[in-house]
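Could you help me review a protein record that somebody else here produced? Do not assume that whoever made the record got everything right. The record follows directly below this note.
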Amino acid sequence: MQLTAGYWLLFAIGVVGELSPVTDDGRRQRGGVYLSACTSLAILLVWGLWPALAAQTAAAVVAALRSRLPLPGIAFLVARTMAATAAAAVVASVVGFGTIRRAEGIDREFLLDLIATIAVWLAAYHVPAIVAELRNETWRTVRQGIGVEILSSAALLFLAPIVVAEPRGWTFALLLLPLLALNRLSGLVTRQAASLRRDQVTGLLNQRGLADVAADLGRERRRAPGRYTLLLVRLHSLRDLDDAFGRQVVDRVLTHVARRLDAALGDRAWVGRPDTDDLVVLVPRGADQDDPEPVEAAVATIDRLVKEPVSMGGLLFDARATIGTARSPEDSTDFPTLLRYADAAIRYGRAGRMRVAAFAPRPQEEIDRRLSLLADLRAALHGEASGGRIEFAYQPQVRLDSGEVVGVESLLRWTHPTHGAVKPSDLFAIVEPTPLVHDLTRLAVETALDQLRHWDEERIRLRVSVNVTVRDLQQDWLIDHILDRVRRVGIAPDHLVIEVTENEVISDPEVVRRSVDRLVGAGVQVAVDDFGSGFASLQHLRQLRLNQLKIDKGLVRSIADNPGDRAVVRSIIDLARALGLTVVGEGVETEAVHRTLRRLGCEMGQGYFYGRPTTAAEFVRALSKRSRRVGGGPASAA
């Protein structure tokens, strides 16, 4: 039987109309369900091996070119299709298919012969690709979508006898639409299965894909236990790039660095991007858990490549990085936990020469101590004696031109019944991740407002500043409580100043802006504390309705002797005043710093030079001695 025009039409569609790409991300060796498989097998059954090889090779080349495979990829795909067709021809010859002219029906023997032929075709086509992928991927990664691909290929191949059996040819064209639907559906399922494990920006493994690889790496094997090290690569320049150039540039830099690492590490490690702007590298380790060579080699490669600037459009972008490490199974066998540990290593660990920080679990005694302190703090907030005393101290803020005390900062002090005075930094390290931080803020605001009302009754006009966290500003109920309390106390709203640190202002700008608008709209003042200690800029602050800007003491302390810091402080003061902000210099401890700040145009100062934090009663006594004015110089204010 000669192939009619209908057969040639269908085959032409199979050659030039491959609708599924060969790869989902440019690297997979398998992934291809082709219309030409059906027609090529039909040609094999009708005309024999050589016409089938010619037809299938042409279709494979077209599909590979459409998928933009490199030359080795094209050669590999062509070799697979030729091997599958040749293997099917051998089986067909052995079982007695031979070259047939027309099938007179399908009986049991014919069906068994067909199944054997197609099974060999599928094995010859898919097995080499799976083996090739296993060199760079784990079995958990490779098996994604295999079932759908094999099922779709088999469905197309089983249609080949129908092509042979249909004498008119054109009738078979009625199957064209179902074939196209099957072809497209199989490709869609394959791509979706792969996309669930791939990051859409970089094309590398996402958090789910990394977790799958980690599970395979961590599985105990016969020859060696499953050990690996997770390297979390944090690119510190991305936030600055986002501010200056936008998200598109950030994504391009991140993608460039990620693919650079992936290409350099090769089959020594797996590179991916979790659900953040960090990168993760999973490095397998041998049976000797103390052998640091694989990890050290990977770290050295990462450090070298990240230091190389990223070139885009003729411009160079820096991509500074710190690496946090965590090990499986020594630190944990759970991937999300290891990711969290590596993040903790970056934030709290000490980086060495190559900016690498290893996770070190806290001793159980330290964990127990923190939990005990947290329970005692809760008792103190409820007024129980077992928790000790929570009090507030007040440090003066003065006008630099006149020495007049115009405000105070309220500072929390906790005296533990057995540990004594707890450092504020230790206190907030314990309480900040818990809801108790909101209880502390509420107490601080209520105490400050009560103190303001008491001083107002004594005709002492001062502002009181209270520190809050960005987590406090995220709580609408807490903002409601502050505003309601201000109204009920009956003091001027602008006598209360809410302070938020610089880094927290930019950590969640939308929430901060909404809360600041509500506070300032009600008359409460809002200040940015510790400005100059982080990465914020006045461009960020310009978008907020702020009242005060407090320059970080780390800059202020050295302005009398350090021309560089003095120039930075002068610029901050000039820009802040241009934005209508009152500027407060923190950490003033000497007369030289006081005079320099006043000469630079700073309006207010705070620090030990004007007075140490003290109780409300002692503060009032100091004010009455000075008649609320600094006599003889700022040093005697308190």
Remarks:
- DSSP finds 26 helices and 16 strands in the chain.
- The CA atoms of residues 521 and 545 lie 9 Å apart.
